[in-house]
Amino acid sequence: MLAFDTAIQVWLVHVAASSVVFSYAVFAITEFYFTKGLVPLAILCAIWFHPGDAQQWRREIVVAILCAALVAFLLGRLFALTLPFRLRPLYDPAVHLLFPLADKTGVRMRLWSSFPSDHAALWMTIAVGIFLVWRWIGMLTIAQCAVFVCLPRVYLGLHYPSDVLGGAIIGAFCAWMFSRAPIRSRIAPIFVRFMEYRPAVGYMLAFLFFFELATMFDEPRYLATLVVKQLHGGSLR
């Protein structure tokens, strides 16, 4: 555990350790999809439908950011699987912290490496993407990602501060890279034209993709876990 992690984690855990209501509120924030990604995704919809001379550019940015978000999420999972395993602070006896509502969190993520945070990677990508189009709303979205996505996961011991920082850096980099003209111009116009010529199919698929983003691909990840267990001779229980 880095000194940077120690200082922030100790302060967060003790700042409201005596408030049960606060702890349950933070736990609810980590569980609710609305407080994580629904609002930023709704803002992307507003950007897409906003009229004006720059509508084509804005729509290309939306497509680029959605592609970047998927890549950032996959990179987070790839790094978690390939980098040295890092036990989450909630389960690490060396941390010497009593995290609030540890019994509610359970053991479902004990075998998942802590670094980096895929939540931070995904939602920081969306937030930075919004910032590239609408500065003030983007700044609020970045703050929302920090306060409602990153900090609660540190407070509950699901991640170290460096985990969410690493995820946020991945997300910000992916948003910047995919929004650059050389990459955006190769990918985004194809999707924009498809949405214009096949709106029924296009918006149906967009809705499904937004649903998976909002739920952090919970169902595909669950199915992948079942497949891996069966391939290794495990049971479904």
What does this structure look like?
There is one protein chain. This protein is an all-alpha fold and 237 residues long. It has one domain (3-231): Vanadium-containing Chloroperoxidase, domain 1. It has eleven helices and no strands. It has helices spanning 3-15, 20-31, 34-49, 55-82, 102-105, 118-133, 135-155, 161-179, 181-197, 199-214, 218-231. Helix 3 packs parallel to helix 6 (118-133), helix 4 (55-82) crosses helix 8 (161-179) and helix 4 (55-82) packs across helix 9. The chain starts with a helix and ends in a 6-residue tail after the last helix. The relative contact order is 0.15. The mean pLDDT is 86.
Question: Which short descriptors sum up this protein?
Answer:
mainly alpha; Vanadium-containing Chloroperoxidase, domain 1; 11 helices; 74% helix; globular
List strands and helices in order, with pairings:
Blueprint: H1 3-15, H2 20-31, H3 34-49, H4 55-82, H5 102-105, H6 118-133, H7 135-155, H8 161-179, H9 181-197, H10 199-214, H11 218-231
Helix pairs in contact: 2-7, 3-4, 3-6, 3-7, 4-6, 4-8, 4-9, 6-7, 6-8, 9-10
Give the gist of this structure:
This protein has 237 residues and is mainly α. It contains 11 helices and no strands. The longest helix has 28 residues, at 55-82.
